[in-house]
């Protein structure tokens, strides 16, 4: 009985930590808000310290709560994966179509290698690929989808407060560049440092979450200089960003190796220093039932590791 109580408390804790909202956590677990609160209080009594800072408007993890979350979440995911593998070993895995949405800013050789890596291990599983706008992470946060999205993250995904999703291991790290029109003053530079962007208008990306947008285009430089971020984008990302950059003479932070097909000739990508590389990783809904999604995520990470993609300057 005690073991079951701890399991329920941990489940409630992880839901609240991901949602940062007791009501949404309750809806996700099909429980009442009071039941969630009771489980959290029980876990806090068991530990002997608060895990959340609560006000009438916000819920935040305490430092202890953040530590527990960072250790408990992967442990639960490993347990879930062990159960999935046991089911497959018992011959009870259901036949399913594996649908993979790739960011349309991703190079063809990368998507092809990831598809082949899965197909070689599981040739019996139908695999369907789609190209999708790169900044559509909220689709997987807000919808109960049964597929996976492989896209870019401007920092370690666990720091970006993306709710109701699992994020798989990193596949690739990509250096940053500044996208500008050929008439922009930065187009004449061989390299641009993040400090120089404080002197120019910079495109602010769609706010997947505030933490996500701020990690993509920071509000200030490392030395504290303010970056003038211009809000023009909605959510289609590549096509929209290209148009705004060229027509309005605005700089945009992006990945270094964009697909060249479809990019106008009056566009320049200049290497950017002073910010960490982008991460490529798979993301999927916590409600997904397709047992092959975690397997795809793991195989994709293995493909990236073998190809040397975890080094930011890899070819």
UniProtKB/TrEMBL annotation:
Keyword Glycosyltransferase: no
Domain HTH lysR-type: 8-62
InterPro entries: LysR_HTH_N, LysR_subst-bd, WH-like_DNA-bd_sf, WH_DNA-bd_sf
GO molecular function (one): DNA-binding transcription factor activity
SUPFAM superfamilies recorded: Periplasmic binding protein-like II, Winged helix' DNA-binding domain
Gene Ontology CC terms, in alphabetical order: protein-DNA complex
Keywords attached to this entry: DNA-binding, Transcription, Transcription regulation
Record carries keyword Membrane: no
Protein family per UniProt: Belongs to the LysR transcriptional regulatory family.
Annotated protein name in UniProt: DNA-binding transcriptional LysR family regulator
């Amino acid at each position: 009985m005690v073991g079951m109580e701890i399991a329920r408390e941990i489940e409630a804790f992880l839901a609240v930590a991901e949602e940062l909202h007791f009501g949404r956590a309750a809806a996700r677990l099909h429980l009442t808000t009071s039941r969630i609160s009771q489980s959290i209080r029980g876990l806090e009594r068991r530990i002997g310290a608060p895990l959340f800072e609560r006000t009438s408007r916000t819920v935040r993890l305490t430092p202890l709560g953040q530590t527990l979350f960072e250790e408990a979440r992967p442990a639960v995911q490993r347990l879930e994966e062990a159960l999935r593998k046991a089911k497959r070993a018992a011959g009870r895995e259901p036949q399913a179509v594996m649908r993979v949405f790739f960011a349309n800013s991703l190079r063809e050789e990368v998507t092809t290698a990831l598809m082949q890596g899965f197909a070689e291990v599981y040739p019996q599983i139908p695999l369907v690929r789609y190209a999708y706008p790169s900044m559509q992470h909220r689709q997987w946060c807000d919808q109960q989808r049964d597929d996976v999205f492989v896209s870019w993250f401007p920092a370690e995904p666990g720091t970006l407060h993306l709710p109701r999703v699992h994020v798989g291991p990193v596949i690739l790290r990509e250096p940053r560049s500044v996208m500008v029109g050929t008439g922009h003053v930065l187009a004449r530079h061989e390299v641009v440092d993040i400090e120089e962007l404080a002197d120019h208008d910079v495109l602010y990306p769609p706010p997947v979450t505030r933490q996500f947008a701020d990690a993509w285009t920071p509000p200030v430089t490392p030395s504290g200089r303010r970056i003038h971020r211009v809000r023009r984008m909605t959510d289609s990302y590549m096509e929209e960003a290209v148009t705004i950059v060229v027509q309005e003479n605005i700089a945009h932070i992006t990945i270094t190796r964009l697909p060249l097909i479809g990019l106008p000739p009056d566009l320049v990508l200049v290497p950017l220093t002073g910010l960490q590389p982008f991460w490529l990783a798979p993301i999927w809904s916590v409600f997904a039932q397709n047992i092959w999604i975690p397997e795809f995520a793991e195989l994709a990470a293995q493909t990236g590791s073998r190809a040397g993609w975890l080094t930011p300057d890899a070819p």
